[in-house]
Amino acid sequence: MAAKALHFDVGDYVVYPKHGVGRVIELQKQEIAGMQLELYVLRFEKERMTLRVPTNKAESVGMRKLSSDKTMREAMETLKGKPKVKRTMWSRRAQEYEAKINSGDLVSIAEVVRDLFRADDQPEQSYSERQIFEGATSRLARELAAMEQIDEPAAQEKILDILRKAAAIYNKDKVPA
C-alpha cells in the first residue's frame, strides 16, 4: 500500500463528514466475510450512536482529525462576513446547504450558518430553514467545543454572539424609512 492510511488513537476526537464530531473509543479487529478487518469504533455522544469504520477506509469516507486553529479562525471570520442570499428556489438552496454541511468542511459549514442566521429584528425563518441552520450551527459548535475544551452550549453562544455582532453591522443600512 503506497498511501499511508490516516491514523487515529483511542481517545482522539475525529470528524466524520455525515455525523460531525465523534471520539475514537476503541480499535477492533473483526472477521467479516472471511476477511480480517481493523476498525475504528467511533462514538457520537449527541446522537447516541456508535459507528465502526474500517481503518483502510477512513480517508476515503472523509474522516479527519479536528480542524487546525487556522481553519477554525477562518471559519469564525466567515461568520463575520456579509450573508450571501441567493434568489434560487428553496429546494435547490437546501440541497446546496446540506451538501456543504455533509462535506465536513468547517468553512463551508460556517457559510451555511452565516447565510441562514436571522437576527431578532429580521423576518422569521421557515421551519426547514431553521432545521438546517440549527444542524449546521450544532456541527460547527461541536468542533469548536472539542477544540477549545468547552461545552457545546458555550460554543454555540460564542458563534451566535459573532453572528449577532455581524448582523448589527450589515443591518444598519436597512433602516426603515
TrEMBL record:
Domain of life of the organism encoding this protein: Bacteria
SUPFAM superfamilies: CarD-like (SSF141259)
CarD-like/TRCF RNAP-interacting domain span: 7-117
InterPro entries for this protein: CarD-like/TRCF_RID, CarD-like/TRCF_RID_sf, CarD-like_C, CarD-like_regulator, CarD_C
Protein name in the entry: CarD family transcriptional regulator
Species this chain originates from: Sphingomonas corticis
